[in-house]
Structures are given as structure tokens and as C-alpha cells.
């Protein structure tokens, strides 16, 4: 009987201790850190698309244009690691009205441009050599990891400041962090094109401006739970 009571007492103390741990007073807050950065490089995805009735001729024409494009890219002194073929396709297409087959060939090239001052020259040359589709332009920062680290630190500082503001009203203080959740997502802005300056509108030969790169908002979001003291 005494042993049974002893066992029950130990169980009661264990349960009580467990409940005390679960009921540790704490506060959970969100924090956001944002760093605005002017992009210094971009990734361009461009495509040559050719069509015709003969598969062999269509593919040959597409290959010749891509060969010219690659020669031009090399003349731009881009590092070999900064451009690559992303996709190649040759697909039959059927016109039900005319009851005829045709073929569509595409080759897609991905280019990392590390000097945005060469953007206009690169784009003009690509189009001149046969590129007839611009699939995507993404602006980036070469120091992305550094700015992400800065944004995370700012997010944690804001979370701590929020928690201190809340508990100061109650005459309490925050202790160590219990949990930290990273809710960050990386966002790359899409290109914002500006109208080309017409050379006919002005006698002066000013350099053209064909896009506005804007800024990248590098944002970090965290959720932090602090113990209350």
C-alpha cells in the first residue's frame, strides 16, 4: 500500500513538473528586416524560334542563327561560365484547316550579364544575330548573400524591439529566445521597360535608356518566441 502511494506521489510530481514546463510565460512576435539594393547584374533568357515546312531545313536555319549568336556573345567578352544553352526543341505542328504539317524549332540561351552598362549593346546584338524572343530578364545583386545576412539581423532586432515594447507596459522583461522561425522569401524584380528615346526627337546623340532596373528589396521575416522574466 505504501509503495502504491509512493508511486502515485512520484507520478503526481512528474505530471505537475511537466505542466509547469509547458506553462512557461512567453511572448511570440514577428520581425521584418529590409535592405534595398540597386542591382549590379542580370540574367537574360532569350530564344531563337524558326518555323517552316521541312524539319531538316528548320533545324538547320535555327542552328545557323544560334551559331551567329554565340559568336557575338563571345565577342562581348563574357566568361564561358556566364552563358549556356537552356533548352532545344523541334516540334511538328499540324494545320487542320490546310491539312498540312509544319515544324517549329527553338533554342533558348541563358546569359548572366555582370556589367549592366552593356545591356543595350548585348540586346541589340542578340536581336541582330537572330534572337526573336526575350523570355525573361531578372535583375540581381552579386552580393546577395551579404545583404540577406544584413536583412536577417535587422529582422531579429525588430522582433526583439517589439517584444520589449509589449512587456515593458507590464513591468516585465524578455529573457532568452525559445524558438526562431525563418519565414523569408527571395524576390527578384521583373524588368521595367522604358520607352526608347527616339533619335529623331533630338539633334543630340544622347545614349539611349531602354530600361529602369529599379531596386531589389531583400527582405527577411522571422517569428521569435521569448521567455518572459
CATH architecture of the largest domain: 2-Layer Sandwich
> Can you identify the CATH class of the largest domain?
Alpha Beta
Going by CATH, what is the homologous superfamily of the largest domain?
Protein of unknown function (DUF541), domain 1
Give helix and strand order, one letter per element, not per position.
HEEHEEHEHEEEE
What is the residue-mean pLDDT, rounded to a whole number?
Answer: 83
| Total DSSP helices | 4
Strand content: 35-45%
Structure classification: alpha+beta
User: Which residue ranges are poorly predicted, with pLDDT under 50 across at least 5 consecutive positions?
Assistant: 4-8, 191-206
CATH topology label of the largest domain? Translation Initiation Factor IF3
How many discrete domains? 2
Number-wise, the strands total 9
How do the strands line up in the largest sheet? Answer: 3-4-2-5
Describe the global form. Answer: elongated
